[in-house]
Amino acid sequence: MANHIFPLFISPLIVIMSMSLIMSQTILVEARQLLEVTLPELPKPEFPELPKPELPKLPEFPIPELPKFEIPKLPELPPFPHFTDLTKPTLPTIPKDINPSHSTTSP
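and the corresponding structure tokens:
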């Protein structure tokens, strides 16, 4: 006779999944009921006006003047050396008498 052992970690997962499915239906129904309910208009409460507080004046501090610094001059760089113009490399030419069996395009 065959003996089948049910893994123990599967059973809590099945319980959690089934409970989440049951709870999701309840939440949807409650949300639908909230949308269908109309609430009565409530009057806005009136609050007494409070006097605006007076803030104390901040003392004025003198702004210190910073001394002007002389910017050092950068040394001049020597001129860039001029190189002779180099010739551009050219691709080798492909001979025209290529065997058609070696063609890259096929019908």
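(Above: one complete record from the training split.) Residues 9-39 form one domain.
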